[in-house]
Amino acid sequence: PSASGQSSFDRVIAGDGRIEPRDEMPDDYRKSLIRQISQHAHSEIIGMQPEGNWITRAPSLHRKAILMAKVQDEAGHGLYLYSAAETLGASREDMMQALLAGKARYSSIFNYPTPTWADIGAIGWLVDGAAICNQVPLCRASYGPYARAMIRICKEESFHQRQGFEILLTLSRGTPAQHELAQEAVNRWYAPSLMMFGPPDADSPNSAKSMAWKIKRFSNDELRQRFVDMLVPQAQALGLTLPDPDLRWNAERGHYDFGELDWSEFKAVLAGQGQCNVQRVEHRRRAHTEGAWVREAAMAHAAKKAARQQQ
Ligand code: ACO
């Protein structure tokens, strides 16, 4: 930006204001936002798959209707977020191609499988719970279109979390076999959901700048702690156990202590070696190819409409 552009950017950030698409902004700020927002959008789109896996097998019509609505919400979140990235000059075509080529990042959590119905409960409770913890502060992110998109997304995520909690509660209070199913799903999703917050602060290369720019308001470890503190009483209400022998209240800190996570697993998932990385990208590619006729039809319809308006 020009010198005056830079100083007005600095003033807005210092005063906790909002940067809007037409404002001048440093290149690094723009790039980092495109990075984070596009990764976030890809996460929503890939995130449809683990749950989509259970739409045909949901245990009742009621559960099926809820699950379909939830998966559609995720598609909507992805679309808002791609639009927010476009306001920064990113092209949707480039973002799509990066995802289809397997070059784009999306959240590690969506590379884990959903072998049982209880996994749908665990995703709602833990994955959407972690998403809310991480995303509520993003409603105050310094970039206007991103912050505004987050407000609606967070409202929908809260509903998602409650539906997951309710699935687990029903299973937990069901037969011993159902209770066991719920516990096993929580055992599978607990640690991966804690990893959604990103690497420990000391290994988080983007945090310092993102916090100075007020994109992030809290560090990865701060939000992870907040999440664990929130989960403990909820797990008690569910009658389920969090699978961490080191989890205990620390009166001095006023927080729960918890065990070290297996960061080698996190790194392997980011490097493409998670259980479902290959499957997720292949499925997205197939959906893109099979959906080509829909995009073509929409373009033809838009062209016809535009031609009619010109007459
Ligand atoms: N899964 C995949 N990649 C991750 C994860 C994760 N759980 N956590 C961190 N990373 C990546 C970062 O994207 C970054 O990669 P890059 O430098 O190649 O872009 C690298 O690991 C280092 O991490 P950080 O420096 O800590 O990155 P950052 O400051 O961006 O923090 C975070 C990561 C917390 C995920 C942040 O980007 C964020 O808040 N994003 C918005 C929320 C989001 O994307 N949620 C998606 C899941 S929720 C849902 O979709 C329902």
Topology (SSEs and partners):
Layout: H1 3-14, H2 27-46, H3 48-52, H4 61-86, H5 92-100, H6 118-135, H7 144-172, H8 176-195, H9 207-212, H10 220-238, E1 248-250, E2 255-257, H11 263-273, H12 277-290, H13 292-310
Antiparallel strand pairs: 1-2
The structure holds acetyl coenzyme *A.
Acetyl coenzyme *A is lined by residues 35-36, 39-40, 43-44, 47, 105, 107-108, 131, 134, 195-199, 204-207, 210, 220, 270.
Provide the spatial order of strands within the biggest beta sheet.
1-2
Arithmetic mean of pLDDT? 97
Shape: globular
- Encode the helix/strand succession as letters: HHHHHHHHHHEEHHH
For the record, give the distance between the C-alpha atoms at the N and C termini, rounded to a whole number: 43 Å
By oligomeric state, this entry counts as single chain
Low-confidence stretches: none
DSSP summary, beta strand count: 2
How is the biggest beta sheet arranged? 2 strands, antiparallel
CA gyration radius, whole angstroms: 21 Å
Bound molecules: acetyl coenzyme *A
Structural class: mainly alpha
Helical region count?
13
Name the beta content range: under 5%
In which range does the helix fraction lie? 55-70%
GO molecular function: phenylacetyl-CoA 1,2-epoxidase activity
Protein name: 1,2-phenylacetyl-CoA epoxidase subunit A
EC number: 1.14.13.149
Enzyme class: oxidoreductase
Brief write-up:
With 311 residues, this protein is mostly helical.
Report on this model:
This protein has 311 residues and is mostly helical. The protein has helices at 3-14, 27-46, 48-52, 61-86, 92-100, 118-135, 144-172, 176-195, 207-212, 220-238, 263-273, 277-290, 292-310; strands at 248-250, 255-257. Strands 1-2 form a two-stranded antiparallel ribbon. A hairpin with a 4-residue loop joins strand 1 (248-250) and strand 2. Helix 4 (61-86) packs antiparallel against helix 7 (144-172), helix 6 (118-135) packs antiparallel against helix 7 and helix 6 (118-135) packs parallel to helix 8. The longest helix is centred in the middle third of the chain and has 29 residues, at 144-172. The structure holds acetyl coenzyme *A. Residues 35-36, 39-40, 43-44, 47, 105, 107-108, 131, 134, 195-199, 204-207, 210, 220, 270 line the site of acetyl coenzyme *A.
